[in-house]
Design a protein that fits this description.
alpha+beta; 2 domains; 6-stranded antiparallel beta sheet; 39% helix
Length: 280
C-alpha cells in the first residue's frame, strides 16, 4: 500500500501508457504480471498502483522508488526489460519523475458529508463492544476467539510491512521478520506475534521489535501491543479494516525500536543506518 508524503523523500514515477481500447486489458494484465513476478522483487522498489482510464485509452502506473539509481538499475535488469518491450509494443509510453510537494485530505466535518476517519470508526467499534460485552457481534468466548483467528491473517501483511520498513531503512536489510501465527498463549488465551530481530540487537542481549495481537483470558476482546508499549484495541473483521491499522502498527514499531535504544542508555550503535551515517 503506497504512503504518499512529502517527508518520505522517495522518487515518484507516473508512467502513462496510451493504448487502443481493445488492448487496454491486455496491457493491464502484462503490467500486473511484470510487477508481481519481477519489479517488486528489485532492490529499491517501494510500491506501485495501477490505474486504467474509464474510456479505455490509457493505463497509468503510479510507482515509488527509493532513488533514481534504483529505478535505472531495474530498467537495466535483464529480467525486467522483456516486459517493458512488450508494453511498448502495445502502447505509447510516457515516463515522468516527480517529487511530492504537498498532500491534502478532507476536513473531518460530518455536517458536510466528509467521511469519518478509520481510527475513529475502530474506536467506536471498541466502545460498542465494551458497552455490549461483545466482539464483532459475538458473545461467547469461543466465537470471539474464532473472530480473532480470522483477524490475524488479515493483519499479517500490514504487520510485516511495518516491520520490513524498519528493516529496510534503519537496519539496512540485515534483519529478519518472523511470525508465529495464531497460538495458545501461556495464560490460556490466544495470541500471534510478529518479530524483527537483527545481529546488533541479538549481540546486545535485548529483545527484538515485536507486534503482538492477543486475546487474554478474562478480556472482553483482543488487543494489540508492542514489546515495550500497549495497548490498542483490535477490532478487525475485514481487509479494509486491517489496512487501516498500518499507521498504528508503524507507531508501535517506532516506539519499540526507540525504547530498545533507550534500554541501552541511548546507544544507537544497534541501528546500522545511523552507524553508516544514513540520515533523513
Amino acid at each position: 500500500m503506497p504512503t504518499i508524503s512529502k517527508d518520505n523523500k522517495l522518487l515518484t514515477l507516473i508512467n502513462v501508457f496510451t493504448v487502443e481500447p481493445a488492448k487496454q486489458q491486455q496491457l493491464v494484465a502484462l503490467l500486473i504480471h511484470a510487477t508481481e513476478s519481477s519489479v517488486r522483487h528489485v532492490t529499491g522498489f517501494i510500491s506501485a498502483s495501477l490505474h486504467r482510464s474509464l474510456d479505455g485509452t490509457r493505463v497509468v502506473m503510479y510507482a515509488q522508488w527509493r532513488s533514481v539509481e534504483d529505478y535505472d538499475a531495474m530498467r537495466n535488469n535483464p529480467s525486467a526489460s522483456p516486459y517493458m518491450q512488450q508494453a511498448v509494443a502495445l502502447a505509447q509510453f510516457e515516463l515522468g519523475m516527480y517529487d511530492v510537494v504537498e498532500t491534502f485530505s478532507a476536513v473531518n466535518d460530518r455536517e458536510h458529508g466528509y467521511p469519518r476517519p478509520a481510527s475513529a470508526s475502530a474506536l467506536l467499534r471498541h466502545f460498542a463492544d465494551l458497552r455490549d460485552g461483545t466482539h464483532g457481534g459475538a458473545s461467547s468466548r469461543r466465537d470471539k476467539e474464532r473472530l480473532f483467528a480470522a483477524a490475524v491473517p488479515l493483519l499479517d501483511p500490514h504487520a510485516r510491512q511495518a516491520l520490513e520498513e524498519i528493516n529496510t531503512y534503519l537496519l539496512l536489510g540485515t534483519g529478519e521478520v518472523t511470525a508465529t501465527g495464531v497460538r495458545r498463549s501461556a495464560d490460556g488465551g490466544v495470541d500471534a506475534v510478529w518479530a524483527l530481530s537483527w545481529p546488533e540487537q541479538q549481540a546486545a542481549g535485548i529483545k527484538p521489535i515485536v507486534i503482538r495481537a492477543y486475546f487474554g483470558t478474562g478480556f472482553a476482546h483482543p488487543h494489540l501491543q508492542s514489546g515495550t508499549v500497549g495497548d490498542w484495541p483490535l477490532n478487525v473483521f475485514d481487509e479494509e479494516q486491517a489496512a487501516t491499522e498500518l499507521p498504528t502498527l508503524r507507531a508501535m514499531v517506532a516506539a519499540d525500536i526507540h525504547n530498545l535504544v533507550l534500554q541501552l542508555g541511548g546507544d544507537v550503535r544497534i541501528i546500522p543506518a545511523t552507524v553508516k551515517g544514513v540520515d533523513a
